[in-house]
Amino acid sequence: MKRRVIIDCDPGIDDAIALMLAFASSDIDIAFITTCFGNNTIQQTTENALNLVNLFGGNVDVYKGAENPLFIDRRPIPEFHGPNGIGGATLETSPRKLGEDYAWDAIYKEAVACNGELSIITLGPLTNIAIALFKYEDLAKYIKEIVVMGGSSSFGNEQPYSEANVYSDPYAFQAVLNAKIKVRMVGLNATETTRMTFDEMKEIFDLKTSFSDKLAPMLDHYLRVQNKYGEEKLVIHDAAAMAVAIKPEIAVSEILPVSVELTNGRMFGRTVVDIRLHSQAEKNVDVVKSIDFEAYKNMLKQAVAHYSA
Ligand code: BDR
Ligand code: CA
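Above: inputs. Below: predicted complex with calcium ion.
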C-alpha cells in the first residue's frame, strides 16, 4: 500500500528535484504540499511550489505556511538558489489556486483524517510543523514519522556546524524533537554520501522530458554555485532526503540522542548528535549515516524515465 505523505518544502532547486522524484514514485501517496520561507520569501517559495506541482503534473494542493521563523529573524540568501529560488528558470504559471487553509491547519486536518498513518517529509525549516504542534496539542499522536532534510552529525553549511534548514529555525526543530514524534534525520553528513560528478548528473537527466529545458538552468545554477566554492561534485540534498523517505532501506542509520544548540553563538542551530557509547541521553532520532549512492542514482534515473515515457 502507498504511504500517505505531506511534503513541506521551500523551493529551492534541490526541493524541485525532490518534488520530481516524489511525483514519479509509486511508493508514496502525496496528500498535498506545504510551503515555508527558507530558500526565498514565503511568497516566492509558494509560487515556485505551485508552478513545480504543475510542471511535474501533480494533482495536489499547495498550502502556504510560515513567513518567518519562531523568535528570531532570518533573511534568505538568494545566491544559492538564484533570485527566484529556482536558478532563474521561468515556469508556466499554475492554473491551480492556493489552498485556503494555512499549512499548519491543513497538516492537522490531514493527520487526524489519516489516524496515525501520515508521514511528513520536510525539506525546509521546520516552522510549519512546530506551529502545528503548538496550535494542536494532540497532533503528535497522529503523525507516524517525520523525515527531515536538515541538521548534520558533522559539518554545517550555513554556519561551520549548522545546517541551513535547522539554522533557519532552530527552535522549530527543537519543538519537533520535544514532541517525541518519530524523526528520521537526513542531514548533511548523509546527503554528502550522494555527491555526484557533472557526468553522473548529465547521465541521470539525459532523457528528454517535457521539463528538461526548465531543469537545465536550475541544475546549471546549482552546480555553478557549488563549483564557485571549490566543490567539483554536486549534492542535491533534498532529493537525497526524498529518496530515503521513499525507499527507507537505501539508508544506513542509527538511533541516537539529538538536540539543537540554542545558545547564542557560533554553534547556534547546530544539531548535537551524541555518539558516545556511554551516553545516558535519550535516543530520540534515527540519524542517517549514509545513503546507497547507486540506488539513489537509479531512483533519479527511473524518475526521469517515468516522465519521458
Ligand atoms: C538545505 O538547505 C536548502 O538550501 C536546501 O534546499 C536544502 O533543503 C540544505 O542544507
Ligand atoms: Ca529545501
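The domain at 3-306 is CATH 3.90.245.10 (Inosine-uridine Nucleoside N-ribohydrolase; Chain A).
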